[in-house]
Input
Amino acid sequence: MKINLKLTNAPKAKPTDESKLGFGAVFSDHMLIRKWTSEGGWQDAEIVPYADFVLSPAAAVFHYGAEIFEGLKAYRTAAGKIQLFRPIENVRRMNNSAERLCMPQMPEEEMLECIKKIVEVEKDWVPHSEGTSLYIRPFLIGTDPKLGVHTVHECTFCIICSPSGSYYAEGLAPVKIMIEDEDVRAVRGGTGYAKCGGNYAASYRAGEKAAKKGYSQVLWLDGVERKYIEEVGAMNVMFKIDGVVVTPELLGSVLPGITRKSCIELLKAKGFKVEERRISVDELFEAVKSGRLEEAWGTGTAAVVSPIGELIFKGEEYKINNFEIGKTTQMLYDTLTSIQWGKAADEHNWIVKID
Ligand SMILES: *Cc1c(COP(=O)(O)O)cnc(C)c1O
Output
């Protein structure tokens, strides 16, 4: 694989007020493109000026949801160096998602090279303020210009980069979560473990319902019995019950989060007992009522860790830890962010340096 550079001669002005970046609204000067066909395989990659796509209106991505994506961040250290957090995990998950949707996989080292190269080219777009980062969005779309329903024969792999603000501009804050009892996100055998766009479109309705009630996210139950807890919006979920951290196990319907995996590894290294198993809403509310549920939090690249202060289920509200941030939640947040921004030693070998 070669990565050809066709750089812009009209670079955009970088955002001056980094407190107003928000998430995913501003994009850097370039994007990486790599095309694939079933006959020719992967072509060389190129880094070109960020621009609109020209696609056939019949392209498979528009009709049959032939789309998968990833999300990771580039962090700027105090010394001004740029680094990534466990990017190989994103590469592997992208290939697993591709396998599920019969889309082409890319050799791991080539996809990693693509990610590193676009970040290197865009390194001045990594913001400087505390808690900010360059969000990296690799995605793969089916572009076959035919309406027949068949596996894709033409794809475009693309990486775009978005300087993003601190998720917690006002500090780590507990959120209110609605447990959804009608819609489901995924079932075993479906696409729950794949990071594909279709999973998100199907979750909008419950998200709207939660927002109308004043809740910020949806907690999904399993699609078969509507009884077991799965995950929260775009985050995995963990509960601390009687000192033990419990998180739903990965049975095919839950997205295998890299933050989830990192939290489990950190917790175990610090001597916590961690159980990956099915946990029902009944068990959870029983733990709330008997005062044994100590903390609950979501995990994901965007927020890192998000404390859950309240749950609502079938009209009943349950406060968790007095709507305060728990000690374990705070510890995980501090530990992970220190590694990501290079303030703590990288004992687990998770960091990939760009420059
Ligand atoms: C991306 C994602 C997560 C979190 O994964 P991370 O790798 O930790 O960012 C959790 N759930 C869903 C549905 C996701 O799409």
